[in-house]
Amino acid sequence: MTEHTTAAHRSRPQVRPKAEGWTQATDAGGRPLLQFQSPRRTQPETHLADLTLAERKAKLVELGYPAFRATQLSTHYFEHYTSDPDEMTDLPASARHDIVEKMLPPLLTEVRRLRTDKGETIKFLWRLFDGALVESVLMRYPGRVTLCVSSQAGCGMNCPFCATGQAGLTRNLSTAEIVDQVVAANRAIANGELGGLRKDGGFDSPRVTNIVFMGMGEPLANYKRLMNAVRRMVAPAPEGLGMSARHITVSTVGLVPAIRKLADEDLPLTFALSLHAPDDTLRDELIPVNDHWKVDEALDAARYYFEKTGRRVSIEYALIKDMNDHAWRADLLAEKLNARGRGWVHVNPIPLNPTPGSIWTSSEPEVTNEFIRRLEAAGIPTTLRDTRGKEIDGACGQLAAAE
Ligand code: SAH
């Protein structure tokens, strides 16, 4: 094939985004409906992971127990991953069940789990106390274990290519419902349920080392609980999980005021912006929230995040055949990023996880390569992201929690 006839160089059509096989809810003006507020729903009972260690102590004292029980309980939950009173032999037998009932109400009930990649990827489907369903995906890589967590049941951002958005927003998850996904994953790893055992019988990582808020939901639309969950993750044991903030990635469609607030938190979290198009014409249709905050505003906020935290920002870009993968878009993206400085950002293209037979198809490999080549030629570090768990609908944007 000569250069001119390759898919990357042919002049290619412009496919416009539209929902296929489902109808996008619209607002009074006919635009895709955005739900920023969670419907008013009861939250689960307060759980130890909703509280700081000081708050746990106060609550136990209120319940008539000594404050130091809070530390014991926290150790069971955050270090031994247990909520089973029978395992808590350092608590008086007469009080164990009462304390656990009041401090560790069950939050996640496992409905199903699917395994792939030789058992090194597990997708969990959880039922919450009110019947809402959420998913998380656990992935072992050499030297690290990543958990993709959900921050909401459903999502109100209504992106036409994303499985989660199709049913709208059910409700925000509580802080403890977010944290408990990590504890449940750690428990599964400790029980030897995640593949990837080394030849000597040990594991590279005996617990989750990296969190990505790339499961169901828009984390920045559930800001307060997101931040509390992050605080539990980074608090040293036994108050929390003792994880590194740098290994926690918050990903957003681009809620600009919340991005700026996150930047001001003084936490070295990793930040990812789901851009998917460098031009407003396309992004208006691909990411409905672009109606509120345009590409340039989202990029300015991302740049502000870098300035405040010194953390290099990730730009997420799902490559969709003939929709957003044109060479000129790679060039425009590089131009907009370089206009805001050098060394502050990198791009993570990811082949779209396709819906078969629809306009939502991943770009051809040569088009993908050309897109990356152009970004790199412009000096933008670029890494193609993997699509782990595709076979079990556990890959990016495939989490729909259908039973
Ligand atoms: N609401 C947040 C986090 C959840 S989605 C956000 O949008 O960033 C996590 C990532 O998966 C986002 O970058 C999202 O755009 C991407 N995604 C959604 N559907 C996808 C699909 N079908 N293929 C590939 N990535 C997808």
TrEMBL record:
<keyword id="KW-0489">Methyltransferase</keyword>
<feature type="binding site">
    <location>
        <position position="251"/>
    </location>
    <ligand>
        <name>S-adenosyl-L-methionine</name>
    </ligand>
</feature>
<dbReference type="InterPro" id="IPR007197">
    <property type="entry name" value="rSAM"/>
</dbReference>
<feature type="region of interest" description="Disordered">
    <location>
        <begin position="1"/>
        <end position="32"/>
    </location>
</feature>
<dbReference type="InterPro" id="IPR058240">
    <property type="entry name" value="rSAM_sf"/>
</dbReference>
<comment type="function">
    <text>Specifically methylates position 2 of adenine 2503 in 23S rRNA and position 2 of adenine 37 in tRNAs.</text>
</comment>
<keyword id="KW-0004">4Fe-4S</keyword>
<protein>
    <recommendedName>
        <fullName>Probable dual-specificity RNA methyltransferase RlmN</fullName>
        <ecNumber>2.1.1.192</ecNumber>
    </recommendedName>
</protein>
<feature type="domain" description="Radical SAM core">
    <location>
        <begin position="141"/>
        <end position="390"/>
    </location>
</feature>
<dbReference type="InterPro" id="IPR004383">
    <property type="entry name" value="rRNA_lsu_MTrfase_RlmN/Cfr"/>
</dbReference>
<keyword id="KW-0808">Transferase</keyword>
<feature type="binding site">
    <location>
        <position position="162"/>
    </location>
    <ligand>
        <name>[4Fe-4S] cluster</name>
    </ligand>
</feature>
<dbReference type="InterPro" id="IPR040072">
    <property type="entry name" value="Methyltransferase_A"/>
</dbReference>
<feature type="binding site">
    <location>
        <position position="353"/>
    </location>
    <ligand>
        <name>S-adenosyl-L-methionine</name>
    </ligand>
</feature>
<comment type="similarity">
    <text>Belongs to the radical SAM superfamily. RlmN family.</text>
</comment>
<keyword id="KW-0479">Metal-binding</keyword>
<dbReference type="InterPro" id="IPR006638">
    <property type="entry name" value="Elp3/MiaA/NifB-like_rSAM"/>
</dbReference>
<keyword id="KW-0963">Cytoplasm</keyword>
<feature type="active site" description="S-methylcysteine intermediate">
    <location>
        <position position="396"/>
    </location>
</feature>
<feature type="binding site">
    <location>
        <position position="159"/>
    </location>
    <ligand>
        <name>[4Fe-4S] cluster</name>
    </ligand>
</feature>
<dbReference type="InterPro" id="IPR013785">
    <property type="entry name" value="Aldolase_TIM"/>
</dbReference>
<dbReference type="Pfam" id="PF04055">
    <property type="entry name" value="Radical_SAM"/>
</dbReference>
<keyword id="KW-0408">Iron</keyword>
<feature type="active site" description="Proton acceptor">
    <location>
        <position position="135"/>
    </location>
</feature>
<keyword id="KW-0819">tRNA processing</keyword>
<keyword id="KW-0411">Iron-sulfur</keyword>
<feature type="binding site">
    <location>
        <begin position="274"/>
        <end position="276"/>
    </location>
    <ligand>
        <name>S-adenosyl-L-methionine</name>
    </ligand>
</feature>
<feature type="binding site">
    <location>
        <begin position="217"/>
        <end position="218"/>
    </location>
    <ligand>
        <name>S-adenosyl-L-methionine</name>
    </ligand>
</feature>
<keyword id="KW-1015">Disulfide bond</keyword>
<keyword id="KW-0949">S-adenosyl-L-methionine</keyword>
<dbReference type="InterPro" id="IPR027492">
    <property type="entry name" value="RNA_MTrfase_RlmN"/>
</dbReference>
<feature type="binding site">
    <location>
        <position position="155"/>
    </location>
    <ligand>
        <name>[4Fe-4S] cluster</name>
    </ligand>
</feature>
<keyword id="KW-0698">rRNA processing</keyword>
